[in-house]
Design brief:
ten-stranded antiparallel sheet; 429 residues; Nuclear Transport Factor 2, Chain: A; Glucose Permease (Domain IIA); alpha+beta; single chain
């Protein structure tokens, strides 16, 4: 009996020993392990410091501004910048309306980059290497002074614009020119617009009040600032209740052109006028009273009033068959085109081609003048068809290419996408 009791006590002792071991020793070991693991965890990496802020500031040149005046207000050494750029471009020749771009850095008072315009496609890029600025010491009236000589490098660069599509619309009230300028178009934009439809409309004579233009056009930006418009992707022009639509499309041969909705090129074999912008002073009239002879004489051409020196274009590809003085026509050029057409250009102040020369549509062949039997500077323009005079303003000239059927599906899909974008931008406008 006593032996059994001793065994019971022994089992109880062993059980307590095991319990205490598990409860305290193992728990302490686990705690120590957790503590050790906690101590070996690396602290989180601090976030990198924020990038210094750089901001482009655009200065638009005003009347009376000089390069020195502009650069000085930005703390830039005019002398050094002029010296660095003298072999690339004369930056002192600035015009009101031009935009100069300055890149400001939050850590420096003086900009670290400058973009100086040369033309619409190029600029000078000045880059300041602050680390290479030189500190110069001098003494004046016993006073020690230090100044920094800015270190600038300069290169001529092609401008890389960022682009986005925009919507433009205007209505002609008094003149196409005024309406377009009021809508934010520049003279070069107006010329581009007229060029798209110059085979269908004579912008010198045929535009009427109420004519409207709508376009989907690229907007070009530099450093976030709007610079200019690109070429229209879509142009809808309504004049005298007739709608003319032009869609820009690049074919499989990477050639871009404007087409109507059916894929017929808007580019004709003949320009409607040898002058891009002028006024008709006398139209085609077989019974016109001649201002010099004072007799009724046929006026077998169209007179365009324009200043002396205005460039005259060949209206179509052809060969020059006469280039010289021709009696009352003064300085005179005649061109034979694809059968059955010929054209001539009279009263020129200067001839720029020679007999036998091949010319392309749009090539300059002379300049407006008042030579021969002429009462003032103008161009007398004539067209022959089958060796008979025809009215250049009414003649239906031949068209050029039509998109092949293999391109039509892609063309239709592309103009549909662009038209939907144009409608969306119009609704937001």
């Amino acid at each position: 009996m006593q032996h059994a009791i001793r065994l019971s006590y022994l089992f109880i002792f062993l059980a307590l020993t095991v319990f205490i071991y598990k409860r305290f020793w193992v728990t302490e070991a686990i705690a120590e392990q957790v503590k050790t693991e906690h101590l070996t965890i690396a602290p989180p990496t601090p976030p990198p410091p924020p990038e210094p802020t750089e901001t482009w500031v655009v200065y638009q040149v005003k009347k009376g501004d000089t390069v020195g005046k502009i650069l000085t207000q930005y703390g830039i050494s005019t002398r050094i910048v002029l010296e660095k750029s003298k072999d690339l471009h004369d930056i002192s020749n600035i015009r009101p309306g031009q935009k100069i771009h300055f890149l400001k850095h939050e850590h420096y008072d003086v900009p670290i980059e400058i973009k100086f315009p040369i033309n619409e496609d190029e600029h000078l890029l000045f880059v300041r290497t602050v680390a290479h600025d030189k500190t110069e010491s001098s003494s004046e009236n016993g006073e020690h002074k230090e100044s920094k000589t800015q270190n600038w490098s300069v290169n001529k660069e092609t401008i890389e614009y960022t682009t986005q599509f925009g919507y433009r619309k205007f209505t002609v009230t008094s003149s196409l020119w005024k309406a377009a300028v009021d809508a934010g178009l520049r003279p070069s934009d107006i010329a581009s617009l007229a060029k798209v439809l110059e085979y269908d409309i004579d912008f010198n004579t045929e535009i009427r009040a109420g004519a409207t233009a709508e376009m989907l056009v690229e907007e070009l930006y530099l450093d976030g600032s709007f610079v200019k418009l690109g070429s229209p992707s879509i142009l809808h022009f309504t004049n005298k209740d007739t709608l003319y639509s032009a869609y820009y499309y690049i074919n499989k041969d990477k050639e871009g052109d404007y087409y109507d909705k059916k894929g017929v090129s808007r580019k004709g074999a003949f320009l409607r006028s040898p002058l891009p912008f002028s006024r008709v002073t006398s139209g085609f009239n077989p019974k016109r009273f001649h201002p010099i002879s004072k007799k009724v004489r046929p006026h077998n051409g169209t007179d365009f009033g324009a200043p002396t020196g205005t460039p005259v274009r060949a209206v179509a590809d052809g060969t020059v068959t006469f280039a010289g003085t021709n009696g009352g026509h003064g300085k005179f050029v005649k061109i034979t085109h694809q059968s059955p057409y010929k054209t001539s250009y009279s009263h020129l102040s200067k001839i720029l081609v020679r007999k036998g020369q091949r010319v392309k549509q749009g090539d300059l062949i002379g300049k407006v003048g008042t030579t021969g039997a002429s009462t003032g500077p103008h161009l007398h323009y004539q067209v022959w068809k089958n060796n008979k005079y025809v009215d250049a303003m009414k003649e239906k000239m031949p068209r050029n290419k039509v998109l092949p059927s293999s391109e039509k599906k892609r063309f239709q899909k592309e103009i549909k996408t662009n038209q939907e974008l144009m409608d969306k931008l119009k609704a937001e406008n």
